[in-house]
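Deviations from the work plan: none for this task. Representative record:
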Amino acid sequence: MDFERMLRMALTPVDPPESLQRRVETTLQELTDAAVDELEGWELSSMRDPRNWVRPVVATAVGASAGTALVVLRVRQERRKRAAQSRNPLDLAQRTLRAAAGEARKLARRD
Amino acid sequence: MDRSDKARLDAAFTELYRAHLRDVYSYAFYRVGNHHDAEDLTEQTFLQAYRHFERAQAESDGRPLRPWLIRIAHNLAANLYRDRSRRPQTPLDDTTMLSALHTTEDLVEGRDELARIIEGIQKLPDERRDALIMRFALGMDNREIARAMGKTDGATKVLLHRAIKQLEGIVTPA
């Protein structure tokens, strides 16, 4: 397989855990609250309104066969759990690959 | 700055945060090699970004701010390791890779190669490793990477080429 393609696979983007999103948003919220205290009259509605902190939606673009897409989607669903359990990137990668292989086997048995 | 300016600035920062949280976290994760430090680095990056956002936006002249954001993360990571006097672990993960692998055999075969790539990336000099993370994990083009690393486009192209060649040499069995 093409080396750059393998490299792209090895360095697949990682979704941040939800706890981190909450943490960053809370910290930024506190920052803006402090700014309000210091600078009266500032309008911080866009930062304060939780509706403006909607979680980023990650589009899933799978340009492969339906079977592969199904594997990817199923593996994706478990990603947060694996990420939480993993000790480091290599461990996460191995968990992901094991999960993917398991899903692929299930699909193969079904066909 | 009046109220409406501040509201516009905060709204713009919110958009930046939404659009690039995943980029910053991915960079941080592959850069530091574990979730705990990656979370700290991501949070610090956005705090720093928020503090300097107005100026960055004014100076960006309409250009995308992702390179600026990644540069903050890049500098913070360098400081982190300078302070701790240690080198990061390494990178790798995940699933979009699987879209290209159609069989169980491919997956099993790919695991070994991916593990070698991850180990190989660990052995690269910091600058080369960072350039590879930006290119392959974040999908940044040469110009974006150049801005993030404070280099020229030409120097970035050479850096990436050498990084790939060195990694290939490490990964490919003699």
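The two ends of chain B are 62 Å apart (CA to CA).
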